[in-house]
Amino acid sequence: MNRTSFKLSTLATAVALVSVMASCQNKDEKAGSTTAAKTDSPAVKSGEPIVYVNSDSLLTKYEYFKDLKVKLDAKSKAAQTDLGAKQQAFQREVAEYQQTQNTLPADQRATTEQRLARKQQELQSYQQNAGAALQNEQATEQEKLYNKIADYLKVYAKDKGYKMVLTYQKGNSAILFADASLDVTSEVIIGLNEGYKSDKK
After folding, report:
1. Which SMART domains match (predicted)?
2. Cα distances (angstroms) measured from residue 109 to each of 87, 103, 106, 123, 133
3. Distance from CA of residue 190 to its chain's centroid?
């Protein structure tokens, strides 16, 4: 089984789709449990209609993502270790049989080979199931991450009067150019981390 790791490039896709529209008709919508940062960014003018967030910086500095990556990397490593131990045990059993097969009666050889074949199939199934379980958990956590960021940005954009929040990722972005004065990444990271800190208490 290839090690399933929770890489930054994978999670960047969770943020790459975040595009928040905040219109006047939504002013009375409930903001939910997430609270946007109240401090005005020194770089961005109040009322700018469109701003952007650098998704690379966002994910490397968002504490929730850091903790999530550590947790899932640990699970991946544990699964890899467990599978490796099972594979080694099976290989030892096969080696032991190969050393003694010439001394065994034909019926015992046939029984042992059938048993080893079943074990091999079980090991392959275990490998596939473990890999699928890790991928499913990763997909679930990606969705949670996306929702956390999207929910926060809805409140943030509404609070600041922004019409749209775009994301920028170096080498993988629809934004060819954006003035640095429209970059609200640092402010968004502060707000997200404050919200995560409150959730952990």
Report:
1. OmpH
2. 21, 9, 5, 21, 36
3. 20
pTM score over 0.85: no
d(CA 192, CA 36): 8
Angle (CA) 48 49 52, round 5°: 85
Contacts of 52 (CB under 8 A, 6+ apart): 165, 166, 167, 168, 175, 178, 182, 183, 184, 185
- H or E segment at 116? helix 106-160
Q: pLDDT for 90-135, tens place per residue? A: 999 999 999 999 999 999 999 999 999 999 999 999 999 999 999 9
Neighbour order of strands in the sheet with 50-54:
20-21, 164-168, 50-54
List Cβ neighbours of 64 (8 Å cut-off, separation of 6 or more): 145, 148, 192, 193, 196
Give the 3-state DSSP-derived string for 24-85, with helices as H, strands as E and coil as C: HHHCCCCCCCCCCCCCCCCCCCCCCCEEEEEHHHHHHHCHHHHHHHHHHHHHHHHHHHHHHH
Q: Where are the domains of the chain?
A: 8-200
Provide the mean pLDDT of the chain: 79
Both tokens of 165, joined, read: 């929040």
Please, which pLDDT band fits residue 11 given cuts at 50, 70 and 90?
Answer: very low
* DSSP 8-state secondary structure symbol assigned to residue 103: G
What's the rounded mean pLDDT across residues 78-101? 94
